[in-house]
Amino acid sequence: xxxxxxxxxxxxxxxxxxxxxxxxxxxxxxxxxxxxxxxxxxxxxxxxxxxxxxxxxxxxxxxxxxxxxxxxxxxxxxxxxxxxxxxxxxxxxxxxxxxxxxxxxxxxxxxxxx
Length: 114
Description:
Elements: H1 5-21, E1 25-26, H2 27-34, H3 38-51, E2 54-56, E3 65-68, H4 70-82, H5 89-93, H6 95-113
Antiparallel strand pairs: 1-3, 2-3
Helix pairs in contact: 1-3, 2-3, 4-6
């Protein structure tokens, strides 16, 4: 059974977000990392920008690099906090880190509802 084109688009969109989590990148850089055409990456970046998950660096007119927005980072924190952790993993995170993650998740949830 073949995956639908939408499935590939979702996987590529997630891959773009993962690469941007490491730092700002241009569409050509992302296209090379993902081994897809530049127009495909530009379309994904446009959709993510329209939804508020990425934006262009304001002082980077030549390279046109993109970065994650606060909305994307808060969503990521919310997803990480909401995910069920394997037994013992929560202990490794430490109480302070868990508290910060829970606070960020509450902010993300509130912010995304607005």
